[in-house]
Amino acid sequence: MKKTRLFTPGPVMIPEDVMLHMAQPMEHHRTSFYRDMLADVTEHLKYMFQTEHADCLVLTGSGTCAGEAAIVSSIHKGMNKALNLSGGKFGERWGKICKAFELDYTDHVMDWGTSATAETVTKLMDADPAIDTVICVHSETSTATLTDIEAIAKVTQARDAVLIVDCITSCGCIPFKFDEWGIDIAFTGSQKAMMLPPGLAFACVSPKAWRRIDKAPCHAFYNDLKAHRKAIRSWDNPYTPANTLVLGLQKVLHGFKERGLENIWKETHMLAEATRSAAKALGLGVYSKSPADSVTAITIPDGIDEGKLRKRMRSEHGMQIAGGQDDLKGKIIRIGHMGYVDASDTLAVIAALELELKLQGHNIELGSGLKAAQEVIFKATQG
């Protein structure tokens, strides 16, 4: 029997105790048991998002569900104009949602692997005073690229604009501070740092964002955030929730609080640094110009069959890693550092990667990547 380890940037491996917790007998969702659980989950979500004043909502769906809800609830047709900062597959998605709902928006398209800056946002907003909303991806999963949301939030705050942030591969694994940074709406999904199966999405909505949302009707039904706000006032969901996943969520969030987010952030950074150091020692490039700690994108050298590499990583070593998307297909591999993954897992995937590169003729000394990674982990453990 072969053990499979997920290093994909979602879904991720799920802790055994969380899976067992979700295996409890099913409870109905219109009960005091579920309402008490949802109240507890909502309070712990505030800790995860790092907010005291915003509302945290649990939606049934993927992160895209919450992203669509954020966009269609807060950007009103004929009233608002959005600036969508697009530097990867998921930045593209938020622009497509704006287009699908015929919202007024403009795409600022960046080279993949680069991030938007506060200076760029300032120039774009100064050039078009109609822009009153900015949509940005904190950690672009497709390119493993991090954006300085704190700096961009200062720009939107100064202009009283609404900032919507995709934190799907950042919240819960790398520093994300909703209140302190001045974010208006943030959203994420269950299958990333939350260490759960796909099926839940979470939105964090500030009082400022609610004032915008309340100005006009939402042209959606299931994804109308106002319906979720109304239900949460009595610790309920407007529609049938994935209550088994909410049960698992409660277990995960309690674990976050016990361990401490800062400790999780530090470990994620260590694993990412170890992987990036290993890649460089193996003569591979780190793709992003602004690397995120939640997932590392590594460029594949000429002569290496990326598809064969990933296939053998899974079949021979039980290591499931991700490839590139669109123009990056066949050019990069992506290794995740979110959730239920530790230093031993990370060293194992690096060892397997070395073996497969060597088998395809890449000129490396076995153990060189491992040594570089071990040095990072040793230093972090010492300090």
Structure description:
It contains 14 helices and 15 strands. The strands form four sheets. The protein has a seven-stranded mixed beta sheet, with helices on both faces. It has a four-stranded antiparallel beta sheet with strand order 11-12-15-14, covered by helices on one side. Strands 1-13 form a two-stranded parallel sheet. Strand 8, helix 7 and strand 9 form a beta-alpha-beta unit. Helix 2 packs across helix 10, helix 5 packs parallel to helix 6 and helix 11 packs parallel to helix 13. The two termini are 39 Å apart. The relative contact order is 0.16. The mean pLDDT is 97.
CATH class of the largest domain, anyone? Alpha Beta
Cα-to-Cα separation, first versus last residue: 39 Å
Helix content: 40-55%
How many distinct helices? 14
Which structural class do you get from the secondary structure elements?
alpha/beta
Q: How many domain modules?
A: 2
Q: How are the strands of the biggest sheet laid out side by side?
A: 2-10-9-8-5-3-4
Q: What summary fits the major beta sheet?
A: 7 strands, mixed
What is the typical, i.e. mean, pLDDT? 97
Q: Based on CA inertia axes, which overall geometry fits?
A: globular
- Fourth-level CATH superfamily of the largest domain: Type I PLP-dependent aspartate aminotransferase-like (Major domain)
What is the number of beta strands? Answer: 15
Oligomer: single chain
CATH topology type of the largest domain: Aspartate Aminotransferase, domain 2
What string gives the helices and strands in order?
EHHEHEHEHEEEHEHEEHHHHEEHEEEHH
**pLDDT below 50 for ≥5 consecutive residues: which ranges?**
none
Tell me the strand percentage band: 15-25%
Level-2 CATH architecture of the largest domain: 3-Layer(aba) Sandwich
The rounded Rg comes to 21 Å
